[in-house]
Specification:
The chain is an alpha+beta fold. It has helices at 2-13, 24-28, 34-41, 78-83, 210-244, 248-276, 282-315, 324-345, 375-412, 418-442, 457-468, 470-490, 496-505, and strands at residues 54-57, 63-64, 73-75, 93-100, 123-124, 128-134, 146-151, 159-166, 172-175, 179-183, 187-192, 196-202, 206-207, 349-357, 363-371. It has 2 domains: 17-201, Chondroitinase Ac, Chain A, domain 3, CATH 2.60.220; 210-505, Up-down Bundle (Rhopdopsin 7-helix transmembrane proteins), CATH 1.20.1070.
Length: 506
């Protein structure tokens, strides 16, 4: 009994051993809200000099680099120091340090939380989290933002400024609330209205497994080959239709099919040439120019399809334009040619290399004769292959919505009853659905699924399949027009208003 009492007395009298600074994170990991535990214990850790930590006050305002990495820096405004004072005469100081990103493991967002949006996902830039907080307590809603600079050396990298948030239940996630992100050639600049654990989440590579990468490559190659073949067949059908029934819409479809033929043929040649050519091979740059030109041509002719649909459904009367198809051809082929020549003169074309990485960090490489990985090429890429097609998709989506409205009005005018009328309505509904789906492909609306590819791998499969098979869809549309022409030839009468719209979309 006496040894136990003696041991208890010694434990009560002996001072507790302080925690070393490097062990604070490991000790706090057992806590539910380990970041709050870390903020409390890191100021009283054992090391007197604490080389892992930097504490600055108002007299040291300016750019401060954390001890772990000189590539990153923090600028803390005076307002943050004033807010960090514990009392009127208290000192104002801010702690700056860094932690390994492995300690930050996001969990599913708890229901009922109102602070900030749901957490984004990605890889922490540099594998380090920048810790910036006031020694007196949490600071939020600062009148002047704290500026954090994260430098990087990789090319073609996109990132988002985030901070870490957790609760008493142990749930933690990255949040963008109160932070703005800007990017220059070699750094991310984050401006946040609070102090916290900051990082930049980046997605420098596609998160695909080797199996998914192989399947998508196979779908793209086979789909492009089929589209090229069926585009030729579609051109033959449109040529036959133009000989029997000259119509502007048929001519538009023919030009779109020709643009798709150029696009898929150039894509297959570009993939093959990129695999066998060197980095500075001029032939790869020429193929990249033609691939870009054909993609712009497809987008332009899709926009002209939407414009023609606008004339048919909105203007209706007085839409005669002298040499209409010739003028559209100047736009449909001339605009892509002008853009491609300007881009070619600036030297943006060459071999494009993209890494595909899976969750296990094994990677493969995709190569294409397209635009090189230079910084200037990135601006051209977003302007001509993201912004421009997005505007076209938006316009054509409005036109498709107008078609749906017109069809609904047209079908709503019909009256009647009985089983025969019900069958006719079902048949008309089926035809209308086919019309809308077919028009969606002709108007290039599958391009609008590009943003969905950032959501899940399944969306990448859908986007790849629909866009690689667009030539096949246009061919099926040509067959529908051919069947309509034969049906019209055998019919003795046709309503004039219905004929006008269904010439384009029946």
């Amino acid at each position: 009994m006496r040894p136990i009492l003696l041991w208890l007395l010694c434990m009560h009298a002996a001072p507790a051993f302080p925690i070393a600074c490097k062990d604070v994170v490991d000790v706090c990991q057992a806590e539910r809200s380990w970041t709050r535990c870390y903020e409390k214990k890191i100021l009283s850790c054992a090391s007197s000099r604490r080389p892992e930590i930097r504490i600055v006050d108002a007299s040291q305002e300016g750019e401060h680099s954390p001890p772990f990495d000189l590539e990153h820096s923090v600028h803390i405004p005076q307002s943050a120091f004033r807010r960090s004072r514990g009392s009127e005469n208290g000192t104002s100081s801010v702690l700056i340090t860094g932690l390994d990103s492995a300690y930050f493991k996001p969990t599913k967002r708890s229901r009922g939380r109102t602070f900030g949006p749901s957490g984004p996902t990605g890889t922490v830039l540099g594998g380090k989290v920048l810790v910036v907080y006031a020694t007196s307590g949490p600071l939020r809603n600062l009148p002047e933002p704290v500026t954090l600079t994260f430098r990087y050396s990789e090319k073609d990298i996109e990132g988002t400024c985030v901070f870490w948030e957790d609760d008493d239940k142990g749930n933690g996630f990255w949040s963008m609330y109160g932070c703005n992100t800007s990017k220059s050639d070699s750094k991310f600049v984050c401006r946040c209205n609070h102090l916290s654990f900051f990082a930049v989440l980046v997605n420098p590579v596609l998160s695909l497994s080797p199996e998914d990468a192989f399947h998508l490559s196979w779908i793209t190659s086979v789909g492009s080959a089929l589209s090229a073949v069926f585009s030729v067949l579609g051109l033959m059908v449109f040529w036959c239709l133009s000989k029997r029934q000259p119509d502007r819409a048929v001519g538009l479809h023919a030009h779109l099919a020709a643009a798709l033929l150029c696009l898929h043929s150039c894509f297959l040649l570009s993939r093959w040439r990129a695999e066998v050519s060197g980095v500075s091979d001029p032939s790869c740059g020429i193929l990249g120019l033609f691939l870009h030109w054909s993609l712009l041509a497809v987008v332009c002719w899709s926009a002209l399809e939407g414009f023609h649909l606008y004339l048919l459904l909105v203007r209706v009367f007085n839409i005669y334009v002298r040499r209409y198809l010739l003028k559209l051809s100047v736009l449909g082929w001339g605009v892509p040619t002008l853009i491609a020549l300007v881009c070619g003169a600036s030297g943006v074309y060459g071999k494009y290399t993209r890494k595909l990485r899976n969750p296990h960090n094994s990677s493969s490489t995709m190569q294409l004769c397209w635009m090189s990985n230079s910084t200037g090429s990135l601006a051209v890429f977003y302007a001509t292959t993201v912004a421009f097609p997005s505007l076209v998709v938006l316009f054509n989506s409005c036109m498709l919505g107008l078609v749906v409205f017109k069809l609904w009005r047209l079908r709503g005018m019909g009256t009647g009853g009985g089983a025969k009328s019900a069958r006719e309505k079902a048949k008309r509904l089926w035809k209308d659905c086919v019309t809308v789906v077919g028009l969606s492909c002709v108007l290039g609306l599958p391009f609008g699924l590009l943003n969905a590819t950032y959501v899940s791998t399944a969306a990448v499969y859908v986007f790849t399949a629909l866009n690689s098979l667009q030539g096949v869809f246009v061919f099926l549309w040509s067959l529908a027009l051919l069947c309509k022409f034969r049906s019209d030839a055998s019919s003795s009468s046709k309503d004039a208003s219905t004929q006008r719209m269904m010439t384009f979309n029946s």
